[in-house]
Amino acid sequence: MRSINVKEISNVVKELFIKACMEINEDLKEAFIKYRDREESEVGKAVFEQLLRNAEIAENESIPICQDTGFSVIFMEVGQDVTFTGGNMNSAIEEGVRAAYIEGYLRKSIVKNPLTAPENTKDNTPPIVHTEIVPGDRVKITVLPKGGGSENMSRIKMMKPADGVEGVKSFVIETVISAGANPCPPVIIGVGMGGTFDYVAFLAKKALLRKINERNADKKLAQYEVQWLDEINRLGIGPAGLGGRITALDLFIEVFPRHIASYPAAVNIQCHAARSKSYTL
Length: 281
Ligand code: SF4
What we know:
The protein is α/β, with parallel strands linked by helices and 281 residues long.
């Protein structure tokens, strides 16, 4: 059994959120360059130039890529041979988020109670934490500050089994069309299929953690990812919704077994400020 002091978890969470909000990952930077060159609209090309320049300024000057530094979403893969010492794990994660948003001067976007006047929690807590127990004695922490604009355009649908994969495809395309410019395109699209009402939404969000061009290991699903992306990039929404070829940079599908009577589907849209960072302890 390996012991990890929860203080280490706090520190990692803090550093990851600050870094994620200020530095985009290499695969996203490369996608901006690749798609700028493929974009047919001059305005669209200019948007990609702006995104690259914005990323450069943010990284060089240690300022956020976008003013909306998101809901603090965390994915944890916890090895079953790990024990945590030194305090309460949930409190330690919250402490990491609190320190990141206060010390990193990141915008605090969370209100305490959805029913009452918008009183801010003032430290971006509580985070949403997804935990998976895995073999081994390591702990992998991935943070995903999720912007409100793109989250608002995400959808879930309990489809009928008879709708099948074609029904899911139509749902995905309709969701992107009705989102239009609102989720700050070029977007990345996470699709979940199967499981239950709650789990399919998790799948769609987890799909967003993949690197651009990282195809599903299942050949058929990989084929759908490419085909659906291609269809979306013929809609003409374009970068920043100003028209053009590139509406989405990638589309990822994650699946899970489903009940014979259900066909849950979810679309989680990620804006161009696609921020995530991981660390393994
Ligand atoms: S949707 Fe994304 S890019 Fe748009 S304002 Fe929110 S975080 Fe920023």
